[in-house]
Amino acid sequence: MDENNIAIHVQHENGEVVTLEAPTDMGLSLMEFLKASEYDILATCGGMALCATCCVDILEGEEKLNEMSDDEYAMLDTLPDLLPNSRLACQLKLSPALNNLKLKLH
User: Fold this and answer.
1) Which keywords does the record carry (predicted)?
2) Tell me, which fold does domain 5-105 have in CATH?
3) Angle value at C-alpha 77, between 73 and 45, nearest 5 degrees
4) Which of 10, 15, 18, 23 is the most exposed place for a label (fewest CB within 10 A)?
């Protein structure tokens, strides 16, 4: 794997885990990367933390994530099926610290 890439593990509904190679040198958010990887994420607001349609559940690596902003928390709080490990993918920038992050789409 290239030094500017990290591994992101996506768990599908059937339990299958797919490992994706994500670039950290392009300034992408996790949402942008997942959309580019053809995952079905609406991202209606375009990454402004205004719609919660890019919500993901972090299965491994939650301790590596940046602290949740008030805006992100407020938007997640509107979801009926919010989990303690739920985050907005638009608010997570890809960085070397996120290597081996494991998630499932909400």
Assistant:
1) 2Fe-2S, Iron, Iron-sulfur, Metal-binding
2) Ubiquitin-like (UB roll) (3.10.20)
3) 70
4) 15
Lookup: tokens for 14? 């059937």
19: Cα within 13 Å, side-chain hemisphere: 6
pLDDT tens for each residue of 28-61:
999 999 999 999 999 999 999 999 999 999 999 9
User: What is the SS3 assignment for 35?
Assistant: helix
DSSP 66-98: PPPPHHHHHHHTT-TT--TTEEEGGG-B--GGG
Distance separating alpha carbons of residues 27 and 32, to the nearest angstrom: 10
Q: Which residue has the tokens 């559940």?
A: 57
Phi-psi region of 96 (alpha: psi -120 to 50; beta: other; left: phi over 0): alpha
Query: What are the structural domain ranges in the chain?
Result: 5-105
Please write the tens of the pLDDT for every residue from 58-76: 999 999 999 999 999 999 9
Q: How far is CA 86 from CA 55, 60, 77, 104, in A?
A: 7, 12, 10, 10
